[in-house]
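Progress report, Aim 2. The chain analyzed during this reporting quarter is listed below.
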Amino acid sequence: MLLASLVSTTTFALRSRPVATAAFSSASRFHCRSRAPVAMSTTGELLETCNEACDALSEMVVAIYALVSDESGTTTKQDKSVFTLADGLVQALLKRMLAPHVGAIVGEEDESELNVDAPPFRAGELVAPEDLTRLVEGTRDKLDALSRRLEPGGASHLVAFIDPIDGTREFATKKGEQCTICIGFARGDTGEAHAGLVYRPLTAPPTFALGCAAEGVARSSLDHNLGGATTAPPRTHTPPGAASARGLMCSNGSLSPFTQALAIELGSGLVRAGGAGNKVLLLLEGKGQSYIQDRGVSRWDTCAAQAVLEAHGGCLAKLAAFATVEAESSLVTYRYVPSETNADFEPGLASLTAYNAKEPPKAAADGGAPPRATAVEQLKPYANTCGLFALAPSEMSGLAEYRRAIVAATAQHPPAYD
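Predicted structure tokens for the chain:
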């Protein structure tokens, strides 16, 4: 049985109390912590500033994480996804820091309901307890100081995509080691993912990877001591000479029929983990080899993840480009542009769900499959509705084998793209 091959990633150490900000002992192509204004001749300085911002934010995130146990720090959004106080405050503080410098900012949360200017600090209906006031103020002041170090308008050619807490459900269910802060930067002229930072605030110490392939920047401080995926028995239809097992990253929740078929085609063990950003860090840590799914996430989930993975030698692209025999073998990526409509809409491809549809679809009377989107107006503008195909750097030489497995799995169970 396929389910017998499901495994959980080894748990990270959780931070049980605030930890002082510190420089990470990792190799770097640069290191910039000057207090003078930084002219952003490269994107590297911007990424390092964001990394320092996440250092500062992590103490506040730890404090809010402690509120999860009594549910005073969580609520539910209209699409039934979880929202926490940390989501709102982290996004508001990062936007405040970056707004003077980038061309535009796209964030996951409704900015009209966020307040970090003065107490009471608010994220939607959630209000920060009074005993967090000084911590939030202190964090805001640190990010304000970091913002002043950057040259105003120095990154006006870039659009920031922010997921303040990627893996919010894991945050709300005390699996904080799987949560990340994702800060991606896309080129305003082409919509290409240009640079990014994926940062785990709740591991001890925090772990992260940042990068910009166009500028040769790739730096990380990761945990390479975790256990990896176990392997499924080799399948008789696995071609001779092909790897008999590959660690396929998958959700903590239910698996689609396509994902299950793909795991069999790859002869693969599965690595259970939450959050798109966390899965990408796990790929870089060697805890999985691929992250392939037909279920959708959003642009703020993948902008930073794609930029980081590409800078470190891997890839993150659309699954749809590999899922049919007629598809070209080239990697086709999502476009990251501020828009009222979905820039990657393909008629008839995506199944409409509460997560990707502007108007929640009605359940089929016969309990069948949900309808497919036939008009761009049906979809949320930042929903990734073409699936996801990501490989660790070590797997890039095996594109042909992955494409063979995807085509074979698709013939059995076409991807839902939901």
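Confidence is low (pLDDT under 50) at residues 1-36, 76-82, 227-245. The longest strand covers residues 155-166. These observations will guide the mutagenesis work planned for the next reporting period.
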